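Dear H.,

Thanks for agreeing to be a second pair of eyes. The structure we're designing against is below in token form, covering all 292 positions.
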């Protein structure tokens, strides 16, 4: 598809970039750390024939501003609320990936009257474990190390190695491609500062420091879908399975062989599952951990 030109809105003095396409029930897609609206772009033309699709860049990411300030889950959730207010939208289905899942849950906790359904994709906030790479960003000196690793000479050398590998048949998967795109966006100091602030708001050296379990209380009063890749090396699939056991009315879909970005590994299936979930009554109409 041709990438749609994003809109911009000024929220509290800072530019927020977003795509707004289609009409009908509103679906708000929230990306994760180092992500951007482009990670959802392939879903716009799969959804906007009968849904209104909103795909923002979070503050600190993509084409949105990267100000000094608060990068907590609550701050991101409030920014999403302000975007909806600006557009005159009352209620949405929230689809959050990784950090975006944590933001979606925090949004529902703060503004429950504005959420119709909740879709958590390889979500943060459902367990302590998280990849060592993200945990290392919380260490002293991480800013200095990152400035070297994300410098133009290092990025150019890694890109050259990647081009050489593709010539001999190597093809990067969805995880590597998405993570590389995110990492290569850290070439400027503002982006690195925002990345570290965002990471440190939800992760410490021991793992994820924010948990939604205290707020779940055995049930979610809205239809909830959890999507996870069976080979997720960023946040383990055991988080999805444990939530599926704790919340028996929640629907869990495992994408066998997919990694941390199941919506990129199998976008057609993801779009189909999402459409079915939005159209359903929200009940768990198939076994947990379905893998078709």
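And this is the sequence the design step returned. I haven't edited it by hand at all.
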């Amino acid at each position: 598809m041709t990438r749609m030109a994003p809109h911009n809105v000024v929220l509290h003095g800072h530019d927020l970039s977003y795509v707004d396409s289609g009409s009908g029930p509103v679906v708000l897609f929230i990306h994760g750390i180092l992500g951007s609206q482009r990670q959802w772009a392939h879903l716009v033309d799969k959804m906007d024939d009968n849904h209104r699709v909103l795909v923002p860049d979070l503050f600190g990411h993509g084409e949105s501003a990267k100000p000094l300030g608060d990068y907590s889950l609550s701050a991101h959730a409030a920014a999403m609320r302000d975007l909806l207010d600006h557009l005159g939208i009352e209620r949405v289905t929230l689809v959050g990936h990784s950090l975006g899942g944590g933001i979606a849950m925090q949004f529902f906790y703060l503004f429950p009257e504005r959420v119709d359904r909740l879709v958590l994709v390889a979500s943060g906030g459902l367990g302590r474990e998280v990849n060592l790479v993200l945990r290392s960003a919380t260490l002293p000196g991480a800013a200095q190390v990152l400035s070297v690793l994300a410098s133009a000479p290092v990025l150019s050398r890694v890109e050259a190695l990647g081009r050489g590998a593709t010539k001999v048949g190597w093809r990067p998967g969805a995880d590597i491609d998405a993570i590389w795109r995110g990492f290569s966006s850290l070439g400027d100091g503002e982006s690195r500062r925002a990345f570290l602030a965002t990471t440190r708001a939800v992760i410490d050296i021991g793992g994820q420091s924010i948990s939604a379990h205290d707020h779940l209380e055995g049930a979610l009063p809205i239809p909830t879908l959890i999507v996870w890749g069976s080979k997720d090396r960023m946040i383990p699939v055991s988080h999805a399975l444990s939530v599926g056991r704790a919340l028996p009315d929640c629907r869990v879909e495992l994408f066998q062989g997919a990694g941390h970005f199941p919506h990129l590994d199998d976008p057609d299936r993801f779009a189909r599952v999402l459409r079915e979930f939005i159209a359903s009554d929200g009940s768990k109409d198939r076994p947990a951990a379905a893998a078709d």
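Two observations from my side: Confidence is low (pLDDT under 50) at residues 283-292. The radius of gyration is 18 Å.

Warmly,
E.
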